[in-house]
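User: Please fill in residues for this 347-position structure.
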């Protein structure tokens, strides 16, 4: 074989050996790369099983029992703070950014919810102390670093104050931004719908009145407690706002003539029912109670056609009664003027 061909064959053999030596190295590097790609998957699994979920559950479960709208807010927080579940290891790397986002986003939301709860207590304190409420004071004492979220915080706090305590937040002076809390009941000077601490029970009363209205103006005790239990207000358990709720609705509000609490005829064992008391008819209306109920359900009064029709009929009857009362007052005044002697001197 010519020398040139032999040298070409030897060169070709050396190149084959070189390629053969590099191939295991490439395979080894590729295995190392796969190993590195598998590591984030296990890391994502660790995030999913990390203390975040348990700590979030503990934070929610350690909160005091909430009533009404606040319990809905707490439920919403628990849903947001729970990490998303993953389906298989192949999706864990893709889910990692989502999990990281879920752990960072609720911090702002939690801060806003905290400010809402603080503002609710602040508004209630100002109501008890009969002190004016200004936007400047709320920003300085409560809102602080969340000034950009003030409209949202005030709106949510106002809803909570209305649904839990039955108080409306009214802007008294739009220029100076002065607010007042107004009781939803048109109470007279001798009326009292609060406890010794001045905590209004109007929200609880409005809820019971709503149940009575929706049940045909007469609700059994079981029907009332079914609704209150859903709000975290239980019959044989003290509530952190209202104290002993059974005493409030079966004794206090009955004594104040806002509610009637009577035994159902011929019931054995004895069962009881609630109805509106005379002061409830005098200080509120079916339309106002329906508006209250609509806000709980985040809808409008006409979304309940039958109740809305009954409330409109009640409004018309009240208007006619007011006109008749004015007519009687005018007639009595006219009769008095005719009976009274004239002050003119005789000529």
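Assistant: Residues filled in for all 347 positions:
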């Amino acid at each position: 074989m010519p020398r040139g061909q032999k040298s070409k064959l030897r060169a070709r053999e050396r190149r084959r050996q070189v390629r053969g030596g590099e191939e295991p190295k490439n395979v080894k590097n590729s295995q190392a790369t796969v190993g590195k790609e598998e590591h984030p998957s296990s890391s994502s699994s660790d995030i999913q099983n990390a203390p975040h979920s348990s700590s979030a559950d503990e934070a929610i479960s350690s909160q005091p029992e909430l009533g009404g709208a606040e319990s809905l807010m707490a439920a919403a927080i628990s849903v947001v703070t729970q990490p998303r579940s993953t389906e298989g290891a192949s999706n864990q790397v893709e889910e990692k950014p989502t999990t990281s986002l879920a752990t960072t986003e609720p911090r702002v939301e939690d801060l806003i919810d905290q400010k809402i709860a603080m503002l609710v207590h602040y508004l209630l304190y100002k109501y008890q102390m009969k002190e004016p409420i200004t936007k400047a004071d709320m920003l300085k004492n409560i809102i602080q670093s969340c000034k950009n979220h003030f409209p949202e915080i005030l709106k949510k706090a106002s809803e909570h104050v209305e649904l839990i305590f039955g108080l409306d937040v009214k802007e008294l002076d739009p220029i100076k931004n002065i607010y007042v809390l107004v009781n939803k009941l048109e109470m007279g000077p001798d009326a009292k719908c609060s406890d010794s601490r001045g905590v209004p029970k109007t929200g609880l009363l409005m809820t019971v009145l709503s149940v009575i209205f929706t049940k045909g103006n007469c609700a059994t005790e079981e029907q009332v407690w079914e609704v209150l239990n859903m709000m975290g207000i239980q019959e044989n358990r003290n509530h952190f706002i209202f104290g002993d709720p059974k005493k409030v609705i079966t004794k206090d509000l009955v004594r104040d003539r806002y509610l009637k609490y009577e035994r159902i005829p011929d019931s054995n064992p004895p069962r009881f029912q609630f109805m509106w008391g005379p002061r409830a008819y005098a200080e509120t209306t079916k339309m106002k109670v329906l508006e209250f109920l609509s806000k709980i359900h985040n809808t409008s009064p006409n979304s309940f056609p039958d109740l809305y029709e009954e409330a409109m009929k009640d409004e018309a009857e009240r208007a006619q009664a007011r006109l008749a009362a004015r007519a009687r007052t005018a007639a009595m005044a006219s009769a008095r003027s005719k009976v009274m002697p004239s002050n003119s001197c005789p000529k």
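For context: The two ends are 168 Å apart (CA to CA).
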